[in-house]
Amino acid sequence: xxxxxxxxxxxxxxxxxxxxxxxxxxxxxxxxxxxxxxxxxxxxxxxxxxxxxxxxxxxxxxxxxxxxxxxxxxxxxxxxxxxxxxxxxxxxxxxxxxxxxxxxxxxxxxxxxxxxxxxxxxxxxxxxxxxxxxxxxxxxxxxxxxxxxxxxxxxxxxxxxxxxxxxxxxxxxxxxxxxxxxxxxxxxxxxxxxxxxxxxxxxxxxxxxxxxxxxxxxxxxxxxxxxxxxxxxxxxxxxxxxxxxxxxxxxxxxxxxxxxxxxxxxxxxxxxxxxxxxxx
Length: 280
Fold this sequence. Notes:
Structural class: alpha/beta
Distance between the termini: 39 Å
Number of domains: 1
CATH architecture: 4-Layer Sandwich
Strand order of the largest sheet: 3-4-5-6-7-8-9
């Protein structure tokens, strides 16, 4: 009985700290529910989601809950977000299932300096010889990310509105700080069926429980900035941020590409800004 009561008390204490709650577009979120939605279980983080074409030359090669994208060109490919180091073989298999070669990866990018997005940079550098580029403000945090004691590779430093070019593919690196000092949202054009679409690879916009004045200043710039980005295809560093599973299920039905979703471009920004404001 004593242990049962203790369990109840601990559960209630945990629930009491999971505040605030915000309701956006008819759904209620708490800090814990957002984190659980993004990360899932360890199995989710390590299990490949079926690799698939998103639009144009953009392919999903990540896991159930950790995004990784391959952006292809005849001159070489870009890998965006390596996720955890232990996922290297999982991502490699997904790339090969799509008919591409990891040896053709020439550039490695990351959305922000957290292990679930960029811990694998070093091993992918070893596997491919690709150049690892990072936003200047995230370099100090990346240099502390040393799986197996290996120095985190940084072959080039990006600044806001710099471009990453391979062949005719051009990505713009936009500083959307807050979640980390150098959180980076990448934008590009993708063509499909004779039309051109604005694609946005959003970095996380999730605020900490307590924002310092410096972090608050970053978010106060970032939220209005991201809403000004031209957007037809919203993507994110966690699949749940753009409802990937629902959209992927619609691919089999044919019809319009479900990843073209201009109406949903800023749905995640709405959730995260509401939570940020509620936490302040």
